[in-house]
Write a structure and sequence with these properties.
The complex is a heterodimer of chains A (443) and B (443). In chain A, 45% of the residues lie in helices and 15% in strands. Chain A is of the alpha/beta class. The longest helix of chain A has 26 residues, at 405-430. By secondary structure, chain B is α/β, with parallel strands linked by helices. Chain B folds into three domains: 2-265, Tubulin/FtsZ, GTPase domain (Rossmann fold, 3-Layer(aba) Sandwich); 268-389, Tubulin/FtsZ, C-terminal domain (60s Ribosomal Protein L30, Chain: A); 395-441, no CATH class. In chain B, 45% of the residues lie in helices and 17% in strands. Chain B has helices at 9-29, 33-43, 64-76, 97-107, 109-121, 139-154, 176-190, 199-209, 217-232, 248-256, 275-278, 285-298, 363-366, 393-408, 413-417, 423-441; strands at residues 2-8, 44-46, 52-54, 56-60, 86-88, 126-134, 161-166, 193-198, 264-270, 331-340, 367-372, 381-389. Chain B has a ten-stranded mixed sheet, sandwiched between helices. Classes of the chains: A alpha/beta (443), B alpha/beta (443). The interface between A and B is large, with 36 and 43 residues. The structure holds guanosine-5'-triphosphate (2 copies) and magnesium ion (2 copies). Residues 9-11, 14-15, 60-61, 92-95, 134, 136-140, 165, 167-168, 172-173, 176, 199, 217, 220-221 of chain B line the site of one guanosine-5'-triphosphate. Chain A: Belongs to the tubulin family. Chain A: Keywords: Cytoplasm, Cytoskeleton, GTP-binding, Microtubule, Nucleotide-binding.
Amino acid sequence: MTQSVIVQVGQCGNQVGCRFWDLALREHAHVNKKGQYDEALSSFFRNCTSGALLTYLHPQAVLIDMEEGVVNGILQGALREVFDSAQFLTDVSGSGNNWAVGNLTYGSAYKELIVDKLRKAAEHCDCLQCFFLIHSMGGGTGSGLGTRVLSLLEEEFPDVCRIVTAMYPSAEDDVITSPYNSVLAMRELTEHADCVLPVENQSLVNIVNKISLMSHGTKPGSVLRKDSAVTSGQGSLSPTEKPFDAMNNIVANLLLNITSSARFEGSLNMDLNEIAMNLVPFPRLHYLVPSLTPLYTLADVNIPTRRLDQMFSDAFSKDHQLIQADPKHSLYLACALMVRGNVQVSDLRFASPTPTDPKMTSTFLLSNNTPIQQSFMTLRSFNIFLLLSFQAHLHHYLHVDGMDQSIFSESLSSLNALIDEYHHLDATKARLLPDAPRLSIAR
Amino acid sequence: MSVVTVQLGQCGNQVGQQLCDVMWSDAQHAEGKTYSSVSCERFFRRTSQGDFEARAVLIDMEPKVIKHSMNKAEKCGRWRYGETSHFSQKQGSGNNWANGYSVHGPRHRDALEELVRREVEHCDMLAGFLPVMSVAGGTGSGVGTFVTQCLRDAYPSSFVLNHLTWPYGTGEVIVQNYNSVLTLAHLYQLSDAILVHENDTVHRICSQLLKIKQISFNDINRVIAHQLGGVLQPTLTPDSCGTYSRHPVGELVSALACHPEYKLLSVCTIPQMSSSSMAFSTFSWPALLKHLRQMLISNTKMEEGIDWQVRPPPASAGRTGSLAAGSFNTSLANLLILRGKDVYSAETGAFEDSAIYTSWLPPEEAFSLWKSPVPFNKYEKSATLVSNSQALLRPLDDMVRKAWNMFASRAYIHQYDKFGISEEDFLDSFTSLEQVIASYSQL
Ligand SMILES: Nc1nc2c(ncn2[C@@H]2O[C@H](COP(=O)(O)OP(=O)(O)OP(=O)(O)O)[C@@H](O)[C@H]2O)c(=O)[nH]1
Ligand SMILES: Nc1nc2c(ncn2[C@@H]2O[C@H](COP(=O)(O)OP(=O)(O)OP(=O)(O)O)[C@@H](O)[C@H]2O)c(=O)[nH]1
Ligand SMILES: [Mg+2]
Ligand SMILES: [Mg+2]
């Protein structure tokens, strides 16, 4: 059995991470009625008691934030029992939504400490297969220090797979510098990650609204209000439902799905190291767009049960996708449809004639497809616009030790190159590619 | 004489387990005492406690499947695997042939060789090796190729008969065609003969002949095991002078693989039906053989949808490569194995017709017949045909074509390069398989 370690950085990273741990614990508690430490648990949890009975479980996680609010909130919340303060790394003042502060200032100051915590986490693993890094792209700590952690992981653990879940800001994000931060972070993701699962906050908002519409039959917005969707972490986490929780549950579900075959047994299991192998045909094009169906398992809603084949086609529609770009008419470089539940090969090969128990089944799609470039292009145009009109913000970055203009321009050209690569592939789609001429054999 | 089965990867370990089980239960229920004991000697050994242990070694780079197969055997309570006859690691090869062949294989070479050597020492006389594996994943295909190479080196005068499961045409491992091409090209240099089952074909047998609704790998593997058992259980051969043959693998190889360019063997068995319809059916040898012959020449892999229009071309007409559907399937060599009631009265002249063979081998050399009066695996009469013909040309050509198209854009090559398999290595493999395709086309 292999293990994975989750590294959650910044406000967003830690909030999403905690939703994951909460849901994962519930899922295991549901399956593991006897409360015994088993193989399934061992992939993400460490047993700290001697006997087989569960009294003390540690999530294999490292929690990093450059302010204390969110992490302190966790220490006071329901999950306080499971974490150990040695897993935390915090500072007090935050990165002020500035990538350079996170990446360079804090990155240099905390480098040794971070590596130390990562090594400690790795030491507890019998066979470490994967690091899951979770952070936002818009703030300073997640995007800056998070991507610094990514390159530290590459240096320290070159053979361990690095999968990043990155939350992209919505167009009306109230962090004004978020496009800068995103572009600077993108270059790091393109160069150092094995796979990136991009998630746009706008898509999460849309899905949450849709769910609440379905559940209440009232106007959307009753669950999640626009103005609450974008906050800068104030550490004001009350023990009740928090503004991002509904959105973060969706991302946590995505992580639950992707890790489920590592956590549970099954005859059609997919190993985590098979994801990059099958879905990344070219090294830099490793952005895998996630989709989830059915959505209503996320909320407690009674909606007519769905058949497996319906779920499959839903998975390919825009509404179920976690980024905004429209997948229609796009070129799929590769995609993997993952199904959880009681299904056999036959169901996956042919449309299933009988409805499968919907409570048991959910599907989850990862696509490496070209429309992602639309999102990247939006990001780029924002940046160019910002560079022209808000020159004033730049000095906040350029003041930071080690930061200079060239890092900006290199990041932009890295993004340009990435867009070009997708664009180039998309252009080949129009021509129906004939079979490549085969090798001929001299007789 | 004994056969050592080498189970590799998920597929190999699942198929291998079913194979041992079929061999065992057939031998136990068989009417003939000698048949039973020859069969047992071939595939099982007695421990000092009198229990039966399979002459098999289990190899995978992850532990789950091996554990599962060992438990399954143990639970059936009739036979089991040797307690130390397995080798596993913690993490699979991630669907990457190069990882299996260049990393895992060499790294564990000593342990793997030792494992096989111990099993060989248990045999009074070794008839040969039967490595069982899929070609689409990373461990079976990559480590399997490596282990086959080790067997060749360590036992230069023993027979090695590889059993391969070919992947579904679509929908599983994206890099399956690359892995298949690399495996086949290498095995072609190493093994004496290559027995192939295609998952698509076996799947159709399960749904159309056995009427199974929700088909699992378990169902598919039972069919494969049944067909393989039909080949490998004891028979009387022309060389065995009225007793059960002692050289099952060697005689199979010399009957079918007489030329180093032609090593691909397909298998079909009739009848195959659900046990409920078996109760209402009677079989006659003439009808069975008539069907089987038409299946052979029309390249229909199961007893349904046989194209009765296909006829051997007139002797004068030149033969052409037959990639198209509905055309005549030319054989190089065939081995017909008949088991069951009245087997000595069966008339097999239709298989000795020179019109179904290539012109350069006389039918008396191209055709072999093995018989056993003992009904096999609950079928009163059963006929299995192992054929070295153009039957696998089309699926092989599809595999190479799809892999070549992917190779044209160099997609995924970096994943192999990482483990030391370069573009050059790919080109070599493509070249040698194009050669095989050309040779079979010209039969
Ligand atoms: N989905 C989601 N997005 C969040 C969450 N918290 C913040 N964000 C988004 O993340 C971006 C801001 O980044 P944060 O994660 O708050 O910032 P940080 O990494 O803590 O960095 P600093 O606060 O600058 O130190 C904005 O786009 C927010 O909309 C969350 O819990 N869930
Ligand atoms: N017939 C049959 N095919 C199987 C079975 N299990 C897997 N396969 C096929 O095998 C291929 C995948 O290879 P696996 O055997 O799972 O891979 P592996 O050898 O374990 O290698 P890695 O998991 O990549 O390390 C696919 O084509 C599957 O259809 C099985 O039990 N029976
Ligand atoms: Mg913050
Ligand atoms: Mg495997």
